[in-house]
Amino acid sequence: MSLELIAINLFNLVKNENEELIIKMPSTECSINVKSEHLVMDIHRTISEKTNKGFGFFKEDSDFCKCSEFTLSSKSAPFADFTHGQANRLLSELSKYPFADTGLLIFAHYRSLATEYLVVSIVPFIPGMTVDQGLHIQPTNYIDVSKITIAARIDFTEFKYNPSSKRYVAYLNARSGRGVSDFFFDFLDIENGLEPKAENLVLKQAVEDFISSGINDSEDAHSIRKSVKEFAFNAANSGEEVVVTNLSEELPAVNGADFASYVEENGYELSDSFPANKSIAKGLVELKGAGGGLKISFDRQLLSERVFYNPETDTLTIKGTPPNLRDQLVRAK
Predict the structure, then answer these.
(1) For the chain, which ranges sit under pLDDT 70?
(2) CA distance linking residue 144 with residue 155, whole number of Å
(3) Counting runs of H as helices and runs of E as strands, what totals does the chain give?
(4) What is the pLDDT of residues 52-71, one digit of tens each?
(5) What backbone torsions phi and psi does residue 75 show, to the nearest 5 degrees?
(6) Is 181 within 8 Å of 173 (Cβ atoms)?
(7) 130 beta partners
(8) Can you tell me whether residue 107 is helix, strand or coil?
(9) What are phi and psi of 292, to 5 degrees?
């Protein structure tokens, strides 16, 4: 991946003897070299691959927006001054929440594929050990980019040329119930613009309703579900998005209406395009659940053919168990 690193600064978030989160400022600005470029490249790739992202846009009075925009567009505003000020703001906001993590705080300004980005990320430390020349074991810390749960990436190219966009800020939303999204909303002064998981759930419901509106044949219904699932998987695997009009072209019309028209006419309020969620798309063709020591999953096509559910007794009857499971059942009995 082609990446041009323009500026980068690192800070160390640690806890003092009173378990209070403090920040250690760098004495000099981080150098731009092969190692720092690879670090930012890994962070960029990790954020892109995460499926649990949310998207937002700056509020009109966003202090972060004003400071970052001035710094990135003006050579007279040093990146170090900007990052020092924002690091202190971030520490102030982060300390309000119980998940106040230690780690390496990274601010990076870079270009990738002709797009200008600013990323803010906390990369967690992973404890480890090294052996010195005297063969003495010494404790050390490593950073693990794959474990990032706190990160935001601003697409400044989108912000500059499409100011009405509501999704140029991408943030990770990995910790359900721990306020990570609230933290980034406060720190970046942003508003929620797009939630891919919610969009995918609406898409799934729209597909089911579209089928119910005029598809009576189970094979035809399965074909539509499978097409949507494969479309979403292809989009996710290629780094593209689900474009509703393009998806509609892959599906047959129902009662004379194509899928895109059906979505619009029935008020689903589905965005024109959004990142695909493979797990939700898979739910169109697979039924699964877990609880009470049971994990069950099967192709939706098998329902009422080999798998039968009785809601009155809450029982599931399976005809024809998989050979490897049957072997285990016989032995266990």
Answers:
(1) 1, 27-29, 74-77, 97-100, 174-182
(2) 24
(3) 11, 16
(4) 788 889 888 888 888 887 77
(5) -70, -15
(6) yes
(7) 138
(8) strand
(9) 60, 30
| DSSP designation for 324 | H
Structure tokens belonging to residue 85 = 């000020």
Picking from 58, 41, 35, 34, the residue whose alpha carbon sits closest to that of residue 187 is: 58
Helices (H), the chain: 34-49, 63-73, 79-94, 156-161, 180-188, 196-212, 218-237, 244-249, 259-265, 278-282, 323-332
**Interval 177-195: pLDDT, tens:** 445 566 777 888 888 888 8
In whole numbers, what is the pLDDT of the chain averaged over residues?
A: 85
d(CA 94, CA 100): 6
Find out whether 56 and 190 touch, Cβ atoms under 8 Å: yes
b/e per residue 215-229 (b: at least 16 CB within 10 A): beeeeebbebbebbb
Terminal Cα-to-Cα distance of the chain (whole angstroms)? 55
111 close to 4: Cβ distance less than 8 angstroms: yes
Angle at the Cα of 7 from the Cα atoms of 20 and 78, rounded to 5 degrees:
80
Q: CA-CA distance, 297 to 283, in Å (whole number)?
A: 10
How far is it, in rounded angstroms, from Cα 184 to Cα 120? 10
Reduced 3-state DSSP string for 13-28: EEECCCCCEEEECCCC
Is the CB of residue 32 less than 8 Å from the CB of residue 5? Answer: yes
| Amino acid making up residue 316 | L
Contacts of 141 (CB under 8 A, 6+ apart): 125, 126, 127, 128
Residue type, 53: K
The answer to whether the beta carbons of residues 23 and 105 sit under 8 Å apart is yes
Distance, in Å, from the CA atom of 182 to the CA atom of 188, rounded to the nearest integer, reads 10
The total number of residues written for the chain in this structure: 333
Record the tokens describing residue 108, joined without a space: 């990076």
For residue 266 the two structure tokens come to: 């029935």
Burial of residue 50, with CB atoms counted within 10 A of its CB: 0-12 exposed, 13-18 middle, 19 or more buried: middle
